[in-house]
Amino acid sequence: MTDLPAVNDILQASQSLGLGASPAELHGALTGWLAAGGDDLQAWPAKVLADDGLATPEPGSVLDRLRQATVIQLEDRDFAFELVLAEPGATLQARTDALFDWCRAFLGGFGLASGKRPALSEEGEEALQDLARLAQSSSDEFDSADEDEDALAEIEEFVRVAALLLHGDCVMGARHRQRLN
């Protein structure tokens, strides 16, 4: 069960629960929460969106499958982690905006789960700073379509690897240190 649900399915599930977050924002916040060591919870929307009044996704629902697939992908040793951004075929601007929304939501989820400043490697610190810079960006900064497609692909890959790196620092490294003690 490592496949992420389709973007449109996540959007419909989000709307039906009244979450008011795009698929990119939901996945970014969930990933940030998990990457910082937040608990894998059935009631994850309430935690990662910091609203205890939000409904808990039903077991096996789209949002529950999103959580399960994200957990599995983050733990995958083959780095199979994927980002949920926009529908395939969406415009460059829509995909770019979704990526920046994902980054903003990731930082929010990461901050909620990590609380105080987590112990990060030098690479982890850089990755977090770079994600913060991306979160402040907008699609207006892109000029030509061909160069922008390549740039977006590179940024998506960077964000994917940064999330895995931070998960490694906060979760995998912590587990490794526990085993050593």
Give short descriptive properties of this protein:
single chain, 181 residues, mainly alpha, 64% helix, globular, disordered C terminus
Q: How would you describe this structure to a colleague?
A:
This protein is mostly helical. It is about 65% helix and about 0% strand. It is globular and about 40 Å long.
Q: Would you report the number of β strands?
A: 0
State the end-to-end CA separation: 33 Å
Computed over alpha carbons, the radius of gyration is 16 Å
Integer average pLDDT: 88
**Residues in β-strands, percent:** under 5%
What class do helices, strands and sheet pairing give? mainly alpha
Unreliable stretches, pLDDT < 50, 5 or more residues? 176-181
The largest sheet is: none
Q: Globular, elongated, flat, extended or rod-shaped: what is the shape?
A: globular
Please estimate the helix content. 55-70%
| Succession of helices and strands | HHHHHHH
Summed up, the helix count is 7
Task: Show the helix and strand layout.
Layout lengths: L6 H10 L6 H13 L8 H5 L13 H14 L16 H23 L7 H14 L9 H36 L1
Helix pairs in contact: 2-4, 2-5, 2-7, 5-6, 5-7, 6-7
TL;DR?
The protein has 181 residues and is an all-alpha fold. The chain has helices at 7-16, 23-35, 44-48, 62-75, 92-114, 122-135, 145-180. The longest helix is centred in the last third of the chain and has 36 residues, at 145-180.
